[in-house]
Amino acid sequence: MAMDLLSDLLDLVRARCTLAGRFVAGGSWVRRFDQLDAVKLCAAAGGACWFFMEGMAAPARFERGDVLVTNGSASLILASEPRLVEHARATPLARDDNGDYRIGHGADFMMLGGMVRIDARHQRLLRGGLPPVIHVSGARREAASLAWLLEQMVLEMTPPARPGWSGVLTELAQLLFVQTLRAYVMQSPDSDGGWLRALGDRRLAPAIACMHADPGRAWRLDELAQQAGMSRTSFAVHFREAMGVPPLAYLTHWRMHLAERALRAGASVAQAAEAIGYTSESAFSHAFKRTTGIAPGRCRRAIDEESLLSWPDMAESEAATEL
Predict the structure, then answer these.
(1) pLDDT (tens digit per residue) in 304-319
(2) Which runs of consecutive H residues, i.e. helices, occur in the chain?
C-alpha cells in the first residue's frame, strides 16, 4: 500500500482528540475562546453561527456539519451575528443539568468541542503544520463522513447512556479529527502553508513519501526532484515555500524526530543512529543536538523524567475540559 503520510505524522506526535463538551447557544450572543497554545476542534452539530479569527477579512458562516480546527495561535470568536464579533469577551460558561455549556437563551446553535493532546516534545511539529484555522464545510464532497460522525457523537451523548459510550465517544472524536484533516488535505487550499497542505500537493507528496518510507537513505536533491516530476531548482523553491525549510533540512528534522522516538522506546544511541542511516555515532550526535537542542545521550538518560511531560499535568487536564 502507498505511504500514509498523515497517519505517519499523527502517530509520531501521538495526537489524540478528546471531547471537551457540548456548547449550546441561543438568542443574541457572542464569545471569545482564548484556549491558546493548544490544537482545538469545534464541530457544528446543529444550527449555525459566525466565526472569526485575527487575520480573516470578515466573519464566516459556521453551519451544521462544518468543522473547525485551530492551532492555538489566535483566539476563536463565535457569534450569532457578524456585528457582535467586535464585542466578544472570554466570559465564564455555565453548565446546565445535562453538563452542557450554555450561553444566551434557547438552543439555536449546538457545537461539540474537543482538545487535541500532543506529545509535548512534538508540539511544534504538529502545530507548525497547521494554519491558524481549518474550516471544512460539511457541504463539501470530501466531508461527507463528518455529518455521520457528528450524528453518532450526539447520539452517544443523549440519555440513556449506552454501554461503552465513553470509549465510543473517544474513538469518534479521534476519527472526526483525522477525517477533518483528510478533507482539508484533499481540498488543499493554495493560500495555506505548512506540511499539512503539502501532503495534498501532487508534486511534493511523492517526494515526502520517499523520505518517510526510507529515512536512512542518503537522498539527493535531484532524486527527490525526480520523484516530484520537477526540475531540481523548481522543486527546491516549491518545497521551501510550502514546508518552510529546504528538502534536505526537512529530511534531517524528520530523521531526528524518528531517532528521538527510538531513544524513548529504549534504543541505544548507536541503534538510533543506525536506524536513520548514520554510520558515525558522533555525526549523529552532532546533528541530533543541533536539531533538538539536546544531546542524544542526555535524551536517552532523561527518558523516565521527560515522560512525565509527554501529557498535560492535572491542572492542564482540568483546563482542557473547558471549551
Answers:
(1) 455 434 434 333 433 4
(2) 5-13, 123-128, 144-157, 165-187, 195-198, 204-213, 221-228, 232-243, 247-264, 269-275, 281-292, 296-301, 303-306, 314-319
